[in-house]
């Protein structure tokens, strides 16, 4: 043991004279363990006190004001003091910046009061879009109260225009919005549109049977002059409906504003009163001035209000949907488009027996003989349409998609649909996976709905409002109903989800026999993260009714 200690001491002595040791002596900020060993307490190269003094001498060289030694100049002390103040200020700024980033405060509003809300990381929700994604845009097509109207008197406008709003409730709604816009373009007076009966709906509903006429006229009084009826000086009212001399029929689909100025306005000025028909989709989107598109949104989202009795009944249905479990619960609204007419018109192929397929072929040949021809080309057409996502989703397909998204079996679902093609057998897969399916007929008694049956359009209005106010809206195929619902929910705040399934991708997944459930779930979830009804950037010929972002919404 003695020899070993003596040997370690010798090594320490030889190391003390090495070049490395001499370098260490010149750098007092470098510490070396072996000079502080217990064995060398009697003869260390540098004592701990020396090293301590050497260290602080370095500090004093940078900050002379810390040292009261008169050898340090007063000028150097002032410079060092300024340097220390700068470092302290920078440190405080850094501290508060880090604190701010941790809290990430931002302003938000609740009930009109500006609050200081902490931003938190939001977990994905089945029922709502992330709050942080719903604060960038706000609606801005409403009427500005207190504004001055520059409209001329009724007898000084270009003349009167009259339209038939054809189709179902939602196609009629779009036609009304377009009629107001066209009247504005031509500085004409609009006669209250007539809701025309068609061969599918067979409904004699009038404008005043569905919409609040007084609110409609008053809300738009600073934009367009609207009168309830054809002026009294025009005695032969039947001529307006039948005479070709009083009708403009050559309006192309999605016509630009300039077309009306060049081709329709001269005839209105000449005849003083003209009917425009047909009027389905007779005004474009990106080929009209932005203020005209904003006016269309004003009509759609603010001027067109359903009658109070329709609103009250819809609110009752919504309340019952939210309390079906005995306590407040969210609900989903499903627009299921799988009626016989829609299935036939799609010319898609669906699962069914040979007898069902034969009957559908006969139905298509009868209703659409020009498209059906001899039927030989339909199989290839059906495959192509399914690949492109242009076929309605079957009830069973909808059920699988919703389950993959994570919606549980207990989900309360309001179904807005006509009579489903295939009846209960076709609905069985959806009802088995989601047994809490209800319609308005199941939520309300016959007595409660009796007053609405005389106007089929008013029943459609109930479906529209219940879907509009749902926590989640799911469409299964295109159409005016779905795009108006999605557009309105986007415009009004886009907090609630509006799911638009990617039918093209889903058709590939359904047709892949090797895809497992886990892979399918991942595909569904990832694909539909961006298909939940948030405002989207527009593109040429975009649909204003489904995505009112550019003309009708502003940066929040």
From TrEMBL:
One Pfam family this sequence matches: O-FucT
Compositional bias ranges of the Low complexity kind: 7-18
Compartments reported by the entry: Membrane
Transmembrane segments: 81-99
Residue numbers spanned by region Disordered: 1-24
InterPro entries membership: FucosylTrfase_pln, GDP-Fuc_O-FucTrfase, GT106_glycosyltransferase
Principal location: membrane
A molecular-function term among this protein's GO annotations: glycosyltransferase activity
Pathway assignment: Glycan metabolism
Key words, A-Z: Carbohydrate metabolism, Fucose metabolism, Glycoprotein, Glycosyltransferase, Membrane, Transferase, Transmembrane, Transmembrane helix
Any one Gene Ontology BP term: fucose metabolic process
GO CC aspect terms: membrane
Membrane topology: Single-pass type II membrane protein
PANTHER family: O-FUCOSYLTRANSFERASE 2-RELATED, PROTEIN PECTIC ARABINOGALACTAN SYNTHESIS-RELATED
Family the UniProt entry places it in: Belongs to the glycosyltransferase GT106 family.
Name of this protein: O-fucosyltransferase family protein
Organism the protein comes from: Gossypium mustelinum
